[in-house]
Amino acid sequence: MPHKRVAVLSPVAWRTPPRQYGAWETVAGNIAEGLAARGWDVTLFATGDSVTRGHLHAVIDHGYEEDSAVDPKVAEYLHISEAFEHAAEFDLIHSHYDFMALTYSRLIKTPVLTTIHGFSSPKIMPVYEKYRAGYFVSISDSDRAPGLNYLATVYNGIDLALYPLRESDGDDLIFLGRIHPDKGVHLAIEVAQQSGLPLLIAGIIQDEAYFREQVKPHLDGQIRYVGPVDVAGKNELFARARALLHLNTIPERFGLVLAEANAAGVPVIAMDLGSCREVIKDGQTGFLVSSVNEAVEALKRVDEIDRATCRTRVEKFFSIETMVEAYERVYCGIFDLEAKRRS
User: pTM of the full predicted structure?
Assistant: First the structure.
């Protein structure tokens, strides 16, 4: 059904695709690219410096996390309203803008599909409850709220060309993600200290107090913080990696970095919380653990993991192509439902 016109509404915290951090922008961009490659007429609503093979529509020049002159709320509402004011030009709006875009959805005739990338707080749930009859997709089976009209679970897809398979492993442990208690950087440090292995920590510092109190005091020759990294930086880390540590302290919603590491052939040791069980195949692409001690023990078994198997699983379940094909099925289902409503 490539003749249909689809608007992909990306966040404007960062450029789409992001230069470094920005999971939601990554997924929105990958969907737009995948749709365009398959012949869809797709317009990406994103920042003006974004890159897409589809049509780019922008009213915000730069992401508010990248330009301190931009007020986040002003940027968000100029951006969201722009997309909905152009709704009549599209057969579907595919929103990656959390609960905020839902508040516009009853003001237009164009159907809106919302991919829920996670529930940041119970305080946002009244909006989802008000619009519970809309069209929703979850990014993992584990990250669902009761009562919403879910049409499917569609796993996030990554661009495999960005993460070449590494045939041999390195000596380092790596952590990639937000420097925040939710991501368990302090637990990764404990694993490194107990195992005696070097640890490289990469990512944006989202919680300054946490970094100052629980990360920085442990930085030495064995444990290093290298700052935020782009795709090239990630690949440099993957080339040095014995394993990726993802010891999240809350249920993971999806975990793009798990798929990225596995694509490069890097085994993942992850807490068995939320979607980690869906992304990592225990004993085949990594190990699921429930404590620091279990993670230390799992490190002794990483040589059992076949790196090519890690990549093959990503190719099957977490590629752009697999994701876009699943969304095409969702879109067609929405078009059928809307046609029945009009008849």
Answer: 0.94
Instruction: Name the residue with tokens 């990696």.
Output: 241
Please list the alpha-helical segments (H only) found in the chain: 23-37, 72-85, 125-130, 185-195, 208-210, 231-240, 256-263, 276-279, 292-299, 307-317, 320-342
Residue 28 has φ and ψ, to the nearest 5°, of -60, -45
DSSP state of 165: P
Query: Residue 20 burial (CB < 10 Å; 0-12/13-18/19+)?
Result: middle
- What letter does residue 164 receive in the DSSP assignment? P
| Residue range 277-308, pLDDT digits in tens | 999 999 999 999 999 999 999 999 999 999 99
d(CA 156, CA 134): 21
Strand 150-153, strand 135-138: pairing: parallel
Which tens digit of pLDDT belongs to each residue from 39-77?
A: 999 999 999 999 999 999 999 999 999 999 999 999 999
